[in-house]
Amino acid sequence: MMGPFDLVTHLVRAKEIVAVLVSNGFDDLLQRINLPSALTNLLGQGDRERKSIWERIRIVAEELGPTFIKFGQLLSMRPDILPAPLILELRKLQDRVNPQEFAEYKAILEAQIGCPLEEVFSAFNEKPVACASLAQVYFARLKATGEEVAVKIQRPRMEKVIEADFDIMGWMARQVHENVEELKPYDLPSILEEVRRGVERELDFRHEARSSLFFNLQNPNPEEIFAPRIIEEWSGEQVLVMERVRGRRLSDFEPGSPTARKLALVGARSLFHQILLNGFFHADPHDGNLLVTDEGRLCLLDWGLTGQLSREMRYALVDLFTAFLQGDAERVVQIGQSLSRSGIRVDRRQMEREVLMGLREYFNPGTGEGEVGRALLRLLFIFGQNGIDLARDYSLMAKAVLSVEEAGNRLDPRFDLKKAFKPALKRLHGERYHPKEFYRRCLLTLRGAFDVFQKIPGELHRIFQRLEDDNLTVNLQHKGLAGLEDSINAASNKITLGVILGSLLIGSSLIITTGIRPYLFGYPALGIIGYLLAAILGIWVTIDILRRGKRH
């Protein structure tokens, strides 16, 4: 855990962070936390005019660079704990990072492939084609096959930069959590720790490689949509080599054109196939991660962030979707509570009212019109505010649905998200209620029950054996009596000290009256020492009693 001294060791970066926060109007927040003296001189009056707090948070992330941009992007995946306006603002964060010189990237590349790059690549364009918060991308040609490839190389010293930035953010998050009462419900230290684990995972490009490979294996429509093929031989933790995909951005297509309408439908259907049938999906399918080839195939780039849903999670999600689209708030709350990992009890009536109000903001169940993605974000936030702790993958799902819905609406003014997910929904219903699935679930239930019944005789035998041996112990715990136990112990200690104190006084008085040698200042030494010890104990007991009285 980082303390103020450790914060000062990152003083230059800490000053940059504080200065940016102050310039964007967060000086009042900084004044409420215990900043080290080396940073307090930076506090002043910032600019809050004409900008909402959510917009200022996004600007801070952009000004502070790669770590904070990635931090904001991952935060936008948590609609269950952050308000919708902040989520929508953080989604605007794009990796606008200035390119760095190729020399340091070349060293990382050659260390990964284990030889000079000329031995692997017949051509390598040293000008980056993309500069993201964690990496730069270059175009090259493989020497062995002549294939054109894209080479993604991690930014130099990225782990040290991220570690320093997260140490500073972690200290500030703890200070805010301890000193700013209105922000305690958000539990900023826990959020930050979760985001930190997400960033560390993205720093290992092998996860992205495996995700891309897995999608292509599971993809039922490779003629319509695909992920770049990974060149595994030359890929590793800090370098990812993949086929070069030539194509156009979605913004290049005229909205409402036949091609644009087809792309909207293909993208949405693929996403719902990934979510509902495969249980593995691309969690960030925004425009920047989509390319359309000359053949009209849609390419999903950047598989660094993915979600995964088990069979039971997908079944529950379908039930939630159905209740949500029907406007059945009671059923929505019931399903949400069953999905909660914490098992906390909620005020169901109050939550039903919140769900109904939240749905009306973005979606009309009667007509089926509205923004399903934004309504889902609002729904997950209501769950989180009421203590329903859903798996993070549900939040990733909602963010992915919102991205696809927004892209679909731009491509096709008449885009209907509900129409797009009907094929996958129909197939999932068929799978869920198929006799084979019913048989499988019954078999699992019977197996579980049989295992329990098998254990019962042995457990009973052990209990009876302990009864026979007179070795059965029952542990009872009285809740709410811990304070009473402490009070009894404290009183007993004081009584014991009182007895000792009285004994010292009586014994010392007897010694003084009998005149037992040796003498000290003309009086028996043992008697004087006894009086001194009694005085010290008496003063200590008095101070302790007074101190405890003030505390209570």
Descriptive key words:
single chain; 552 residues; alpha+beta; 3 domains; 14 strands
What topology does this entry show?
Layout: H1 4-9, H2 11-23, H3 27-30, H4 37-40, H5 53-64, H6 66-75, H7 84-90, H8 102-113, E1 121-124, E2 130-131, E3 135-142, E4 148-154, H9 158-179, H10 188-202, H11 205-218, E5 225-226, E6 239-243, H12 258-278, E7 280-282, E8 290-292, E9 298-300, E10 306-308, H13 311-325, H14 329-339, H15 348-362, E11 363-364, E12 369-370, H16 372-385, H17 392-411, H18 417-432, H19 435-468, H20 482-514, E13 519-520, E14 523-524, H21 525-551
Parallel strand pairs: 5-9
Antiparallel strand pairs: 1-3, 2-3, 3-4, 4-6, 7-10, 8-9, 11-12, 13-14
Q: Can you put this structure into words, describing what you see?
A:
- It is a single chain.
- The protein is of the alpha+beta class.
- The protein folds into three domains: 4-95 and 161-201, no CATH class; 247-433, no CATH class; 482-551.
- 59% of the residues lie in helices and 9% in strands.
- It is built from 21 helices and 14 strands.
- A hairpin with a 5-residue loop joins strand 8 and strand 9.
- Helix 12 (258-278) runs parallel beside helix 18 and helix 15 runs antiparallel to helix 16 (372-385).
- The radius of gyration is 33 Å and the shape is extended.
